[in-house]
Write a structure and sequence with these properties.
By secondary structure, the protein is mainly α. The chain is built from 20 helices and 5 strands. The chain is globular and about 80 Å long. The model is unreliable at 1-6 (pLDDT under 50).
Length: 512
């Protein structure tokens, strides 16, 4: 086959693949339009409801050790659009289109097919995560990081102005998830190469601008928190609870010792790096092979490789390698992966041009696997406008029918339908423990024992009208958390009776 025909055929195949994947992503976005507020999204949205509508103070009245940024974001959403699922889905779609715009800026000079495929494939992978990944902080924080990389890939010739903007974008990302600070050195290194002079001179020029931009945006949630949060309590929780949380495994059981923790952490990070390398390196090498004589294209590739290397380490900070937490590195890895669709150079031999056609296959295979999982999850969930039979709706209907003015409700759940049901019912939590995970981590530690005493004392002083116990949430106590927390079990048996029992789903206890 003549070289020209091979090139044209390969380019046509890549573009057809790209637009087919984009069409699949759009169809999944449409299928997800009724996806309800569940998991961490429910917890954050419920906290925003308590802050906005009930005047509770974050950290003092709502137990949390996350920075104020996510709560400000959800408080703004609640104030502007309410606390329903539809506004979140619309914002979700806008965020995906924002990522698509950034991907276009980063990849279009290298490959139109990759620029279309990368955000579409990321959307498909995102939908495969279901409600456990939906609108999570890590996912949202990916957008300002992608925007910073897109800005750097433009190479405007104004590195000092770019430093201020990149710092601001990093400030937004870190206010949502502090782990994103790992991107700061990467962006600084990229900017450093664009100024003349010694390293010291260039650093003195760049660092103040990066810092100013960062602080201007990072400080906004902290200023909001002066009115809506107890920052002294946040500091106290960082000193007491955070060390306990950080020293727990991904399944929330605690490590036996520091050596076991470091061994497992390094093993998980090595596995994570291996997956990212398998996705990213082939695409980067293929694109480098085709564009190695083009200075601007090589600048894009270097920026992309540096950004991916940096973000690959962000979860080492917390050590919880959950799917939702890994979305940012997956996004950057998929940008690299889809570079397999880069056109073969005109000077390439026939064998290399034929190979380029074969490189479409791994992109198609990953799309098929992620797309099948995404479609099955959305189809099997059967979401509709009402979602009347989901667990949080069933609990909320009961609460709405039986709550009296002034009644409070205690949810016993990690992050999910416990908070979601209280949000739907407009109920106020009976204690500051909106989620009960802090009551079970390292149960014999003085910190956890102190939380348990506080929890029981608060319930005793002002018993809630109802206690909602969610059955099937992964937890360090195993299947029945009440049997492990004997004081709580005794309290419920003494003062409460079973009002509703849905086996395997939830129990609603009613005060006698």
């Amino acid at each position: 086959m003549p070289a020209l025909t091979l090139t044209a055929t390969g380019q046509l195949l890549a573009r057809l693949t790209a637009f087919s994947i984009a069409a699949l992503a759009l169809s999944l976005l449409w299928m997800s339009r009724y996806q309800p507020v569940e998991m961490d999204l429910a917890m954050l949205h419920y906290c925003a409801f308590l802050i906005n509508e009930k005047g509770l103070l974050l950290y003092r009245d709502i137990f949390e050790n996350n920075l104020p940024g996510p709560f400000l974001l959800h408080a703004m959403i609640g104030k502007a659009f309410g606390y329903g699922a539809v506004p979140v889905r619309l914002l979700d779609g806008l965020l995906l289109f924002g990522l698509a715009a950034c991907s276009w800026q980063i990849l279009r000079p290298l490959s139109l097919a990759a620029a279309v495929t990368a955000p579409a494939l990321f959307a498909i992978v995102y939908f495969a995560g279901g409600t456990t990944a939906a609108f999570q902080r890590d996912y949202i924080a990916t957008l300002p990081l992608a925007a910073a990389l897109a800005l750097l890939c433009r190479n405007t010739g104004k590195p000092l102005r770019d430093a201020l903007l990149v710092g601001a974008l990093c400030g937004i990302a870190c206010s949502l998830k502090p782990n994103m600070i790992v991107m700061g050195p990467a962006f600084f290194w990229i900017l450093l190469q664009r100024l003349p002079g010694s390293v010291t001179t260039r650093s003195v020029q760049l660092l103040p601008l990066l810092g100013i931009g960062f602080l201007l945006l990072f400080a906004i949630p902290l200023l909001w928190a002066l009115r809506h949060a107890d920052l002294a309590e946040l500091v106290h929780l960082y000193q007491t609870y955070t060390p306990v949380y950080v020293s727990t495994r991904t399944d929330l059981f605690h490590y036996d010792n520091a050596w076991q923790q470091w061994r497992d952490l390094l093993a998980m990070q090595a596995s994570h790096l291996g997956r990212l390398s398998l996705m990213a390196i082939p695409g980067l090498l293929w694109a480098w092979r085709q564009w190695r004589g083009d200075v601007q294209a090589m600048c894009h590739l270097r920026c992309l490789a540096i950004a991916l290397f940096a973000i690959a380490w962000h979860e080492m900070v917390a050590g919880k390698f959950w799917f939702a937490h890994l979305l940012p590195p997956y996004f950057f890895a998929l940008l690299c992966f889809t570079l397999l669709l880069t056109p073969a150079a005109a000077a390439a031999g026939n064998a290399e041009k034929s190979l380029r056609i074969l490189l479409v296959l791994p992109v198609v295979l990953l799309t098929f696997l992620a797309g099948t999982l995404s479609w099955q999850r959305l189809h099997n969930a059967g979401y509709d406008a009402e979602n009347a039979q989901i667990r949080s709706k069933k609990i909320a209907r009961y609460l709405q029918q039986h709550l009296q003015p002034g009644d409070k409700v205690q949810a016993l759940d990690g992050s999910g339908d416990g908070q979601g049901s209280l949000l739907l019912a407009g109920a106020v939590t009976a204690t500051r423990f909106v989620e009960d995970i802090p009551l079970y981590l390292q149960p014999h530690s003085p910190v956890t024992q102190g939380f348990r005493r506080e929890f029981i004392d608060t319930l005793t002083a002002d018993p809630p009208a109802f206690i909602v116990y969610i059955h099937n949430f992964f937890h360090p106590a195993g299947g029945n958390r009440l049997q492990e927390f004997t004081e709580l079990d005794s309290f419920i048996k003494q003062y409460y009776e079973v009002a509703v029992l849905e086996d395997g789903e939830y129990t609603i206890f009613r005060r006698r």
